[in-house]
Design a protein that fits this description.
The relative contact order is 0.13. Helix 4 crosses helix 5 (about 285-295). The chain has two domains: about 1-90 and about 175-250, Helix Hairpins (Orthogonal Bundle), CATH 1.10.287; about 100-160, no CATH class. Helix content is about 90%, strand content about 0%. The protein has about 300 residues and is mainly α. The protein is rod-shaped and about 190 Å long. It is built from five helices and no strands. The protein starts with a helix and ends with a helix.
Length: about 300
């Protein structure tokens, strides 16, 4: 009997131990589920925000494409006006007389502003770096003045060309419009890039949180599996305890029944002895009478 009680105590303690572990693991399981769900909620929110920035980026990219069309058309207009302006400048340049074959009829084309400036620079350098005779220096000074006068004249001719001046104004205006259009393209492109960068950042944050959620899910599965195993072990120990307890109860009942049978037999024998004494006319005590009454003799 003592061994059964010890065995039952071992089973009971083991059952309590597995129950405690099971409950602790179930608590952790709920915590992991809560953490996983919270992380997944954050992931959904970040993905939703990223989606909005993606839509805004796409809308801005569409504006970039549309603005580029406008800008490209304006650039074409600038190229066209530039070509027209160059043609006008060419028409306003002094003409060279046709070649007749007679040396006296040959005319040299007047020098350009660029050529005159080069000649001016060369003469100036010669005047400053070389030792010249007075007559030669006077000729150089005179020529420098002539060149300055020619340059001023040519520049004035260019500036006073009404048609060229109007075309230049038109060109500046076209360039200004093209630059403004390009600025619009750049602004839309910059905003689109900003939206793209924010979108990527949000997706990266969502990916990081999703990994944490996956880890929480893995921990949840692990805790759930271990909790189920502890629950199984708990039930096994409970069943073993019950079986042992039943065996102990059966043993105790048998022992009690045997003790009762012995007690009953002893009581009956005692009652028989008392009744025999009663029949022999002996005086019985109150206890003897109660024993006879209990045994059914009275």
């Amino acid at each position: 009997m003592e061994k059964l009680e010890q065995k039952g105590s071992v089973y009971k303690n083991a059952a309590e131990k597995h129950k405690h572990l099971r409950d602790e693991l179930n608590k952790q399981t709920k915590e992991w589920v809560s953490k996983r769900d919270a992380l997944n909620a954050q992931v959904r929110e970040l993905v939703e925000q990223a989606g909005k920035h993606r839509e805004e980026r796409d809308a801005l990219n569409q504006k970039v494409r549309e603005s580029k069309v406008v800008r490209d058309e304006l650039n074409k207009n600038v190229s066209r006006i530039t070509e027209e302006y160059r043609e006008l400048k060419g028409k306003n340049a002094p003409q060279i007389a046709p070649e007749t074959g007679n040396p006296r009829d040959r005319q040299q084309a007047p020098p350009s502003i660029k050529q005159l400036k080069k000649e001016f620079s060369d003469l100036e350098m010669r005047q400053q770096t070389q030792v010249l005779k007075k007559e030669e220096e006077l000729r150089i000074v005179k020529r420098l003045k002539e060149i300055e006068s020619q340059i001023e004249g040519l520049q004035k001719d260019e500036e006073t060309s009404d048609e060229a001046r109007e075309k230049l104004r038109e060109l500046k205006e076209a360039k200004s419009e093209a630059e403004a259009a390009h600025k619009v393209v750049s602004e839309y492109a910059e905003k689109a890039q900003q939206e793209h960068d924010v979108m990527i950042s949000l997706y990266e944050q969502a990916d990081a949180l999703r990994k944490q959620a996956d880890d929480a899910q893995a921990n949840f599965i692990d805790c759930k599996k271990r909790a189920d195993e502890e629950h199984k072990l708990h039930l096994e120990q409970v069943n073993s305890f019950r079986q042992t307890d039943e065996q102990a109860s059966t043993y105790r009942k048998k022992k009690t029944d045997a003790r009762k049978r012995k007690t009953d037999a002893d009581s009956k024998k005692a009652a028989d002895d008392i009744f025999a004494r009663f029949k022999n006319g002996e005086k019985l005590s109150t206890e003897d009478l109660m024993a006879l009454q209990k045994s059914g003799y009275l």
